[in-house]
Design brief:
Blueprint (H helix, E strand, L loop, with lengths): L4 E5 L2 E4 L4 E4 L2 H4 L8 H13 L10 H11 L8 E5 L2 H16 L4 E4 L8 H6 L14 E4 L13 H15 L6 E4 L2 E2 L5 E2 L4 H11 L3 E5 L24 E4 L10 E5 L1 H4 L15 H16 L2 H22 L3 E7 L2 E9 L4 E2 L1 H13 L2 E2 L1 E3 L5 E4 L7 H17 L1
Parallel strand pairs: 3-16, 5-6, 5-7, 7-10, 10-11
Antiparallel strand pairs: 1-2, 2-3, 4-12, 8-9, 11-12, 13-14, 14-15, 14-18, 17-18
Helix pairs in contact: 2-9, 3-9, 6-7, 10-12, 11-12
Length: 400
């Protein structure tokens, strides 16, 4: 039975009967500060009272203040922003910019990736579950550097050889770019094998392409160890896309790049009616301030590490848990019916999930085969919340 959610407060959600649920999914990694965080609510309401909408045709301090604060969180020359309404829009724009800048059409993405559901991003997405039968051209999908199910385990450099092979055998030798998440969210919280991104970026840049980091789910301090997911791989992309946590649930996305790459959009008129509107950017600025003031990155690291340890202890108890992975408060628990064969526990996960909901925990699931629990709660999650989630999961698996 579906839950009818009518109210949210920080890491908790409430149904029409007033029953409280621990939100372990965070609106699909979107609610980073907490549901209805008072500072974000105040920023939105105050801005709405003074100016609800103004396009980027006119100056407005809300967008410039936010852009300046966001730029301070990014490395190198990543300081030109284009605001959108979603991650799909951001990835569409990033891919178009890479194609314009390089004069090439070919994009390399990863198998198991999800980058959106519009024309171009559906091409970059590499799961049949999310792809309609429409024209999707110019994207090549490299072998996924999956440490759990991949052929080379955690050896990222071996997986990266497929990127070079795709360039040599699937393109003219030059490409527009490469797009990837540091941790695949929809794909089942798959953290890319160590060493993969530096090697892949090297091949792409040698072929004249740009490197795009999709930070829609793993950005904004969610991984705990770093503010951005790509930072844990010791790379600096040419373009970064973001959404979800950027506005704590407000429809907001962004593309950030260097002045040199950004220049391509001056060749024609690029415009987004609602992108960068004052209400959404005011929310975005409030989110950044809350993350810093409440030390949410540190909390994501501390509580996330504690939660991961507890989940690994649960793995020792329940054979149905095949893998525990991720970092910070972006964690995955893959369920299997046979650990040696890694047989997919498709039906079992639905039963555990339903029982957890009945006991007051809302949790996500993903992966191509839908057998992975996705744990991406608000970053204000506490150790008590982590204990409750694990204890409920333990009880549900014991009943199973």
């Amino acid at each position: 039975m579906q839950v009818n959610i009518v109210h949210g407060k920080m890491q908790y959600l409430f149904d029409e009967n007033g029953r409280r649920y621990v939100d372990a999914f965070g609106g699909i990694a979107t609610v980073c500060c907490g549901h209805c965080h008072p500072d974000v609510v105040k920023a939105v309401t105050d801005q709405t009272k003074s100016l609800q909408h103004s396009t980027i045709l006119y100056l407005n301090h809300a967008i410039t203040d936010f852009a300046e604060a966001l730029a301070s969180k990014l490395p190198g020359d990543l300081k030109v922003f284009f605001f959108t309404n979603s991650g799909t829009e951001a990835n569409e724009l990033a891919m178009m910019m890479a194609r314009l800048y390089t004069g090439c059409h070919d994009i390399i993405s990863l198998r198991n990736a999800y980058h959106g559901n519009a024309g171009g991003t559906m091409g970059a997405t590499a799961q049949s579950n999310w792809k309609f039968n429409v024209v999707q051209s110019g994207v090549h999908h490299a072998v996924n550097p999956d440490p759990y199910r991949g052929s080379f385990g955690a050896d990222g450099e071996k997986y990266s050889r497929d990127v070079q092979d795709l360039i040599q055998f699937g393109t003219c030798g030059h490409v527009a770019g490469f797009i990837s998440e540091a941790i695949q969210g929809v794909g089942g919280i798959v953290e890319l094998a160590p060493g993969y991104l530096p090697a892949a970026y090297h091949s792409i840049r040698n072929a004249g392409g740009l490197c795009i980091a999709d930070e829609v789910q793993c950005g904004f301090a969610r991984t705990g160890s770093h503010f951005w997911g790509f930072e844990s791989h010791d790379v600096v992309p040419d373009i970064v896309t973001m959404a979800k946590g950027i506005g704590n649930g407000v429809p907001l996305g962004a593309v950030v790049t260097t002045p040199k790459v950004a220049e391509v959009l001056t060749r024609r008129s690029y415009f987004n009616t609602f992108g960068g509107n004052p209400v959404c950017t005011a929310a975005g600025l409030a989110v950044l301030r809350v993350i810093d003031r409440e030390n949410l990155q540190e909390n994501a690291h501390v509580v996330g590490s504690y939660l991961k340890d507890r989940l690994n202890s649960l793995k020792s108890k329940h054979e149905i848990i095949g893998d525990v992975r991720g970092r910070g408060l972006m964690l995955g628990v893959e369920l299997v019916t046979d650990r040696q064969l890694k047989t997919l526990a498709k039906m079992e996960i639905l039963q555990v999930m339903e029982q957890m909901k009945d006991m007051g925990v809302l949790i996500g699931k993903g992966g191509f085969h839908e057998n992975v629990f996705r744990i991406t709660p608000p970053l204000c999650f506490s150790r008590d919340d982590a204990d409750f989630v694990v204890d409920v999961m333990d009880l549900a698996m014991t009943k199973f």
